[in-house]
Amino acid sequence: MAFGSALRIAITFYALTAFSGAVANEAELVGPSIVQINGEITKATEASFLRILEHEDISSVELNSEGGQVYAALSIADQIHAQGIDTWIRPNNECHSACALIFLAGERRLADGLLGVHQFRTDEQDNSLTQLVVSDIYSSLSSYGTPDELISVMLRTPSDDMYVFSREEIERLGLSRLQVEV
Questions:
Q1: Of 7, 50, 103, 181, which residue is the least packed, with the fewest Cβ within 10 Å?
Q2: For residue 128, what pLDDT is reported?
Q3: Sign of torsion, CA 5 35 142 155?
Q4: What is the pTM (predicted TM-score) of this model?
Q5: 29: how many CB neighbours lie within 10 A of its CB?
């Protein structure tokens, strides 16, 4: 999915995070065909992920992030989805906010750690731009086969809060998906 460059330049969206002063982290190749994304998701994370994809055959992305920039996350997620890459939240890791967009794009995905969602916020006062972002998020999540219930929970959880799915909810909603549908 391509996003308008004017929109990307005009607005930078951030998901709320529980940490402040986070350092932009780059995606990093940690083994044969395995990429890790740790920390805040930024344009630098997106750029490093895309560089890795140009030179490596990636099969899995491990996630540990409290969130970050929505459009950087959507760009990474779209590549993961298009290339059939798996996603994993390792035990004792977390994947909140914009990170959840990346996780949900996985061909096969496993949430052994914490998965959390909430509304995305913008510092912009233009409601039509906010609606455009929600539309982009909804469109992407729908194309990844995300259950409507998860999207509803995300849209109902205030941006200054975090809804963390229980093990039972992850199982019931099929958020961990170990079989590839044919």
A1: 181
A2: 79
A3: negative
A4: 0.84
A5: 16
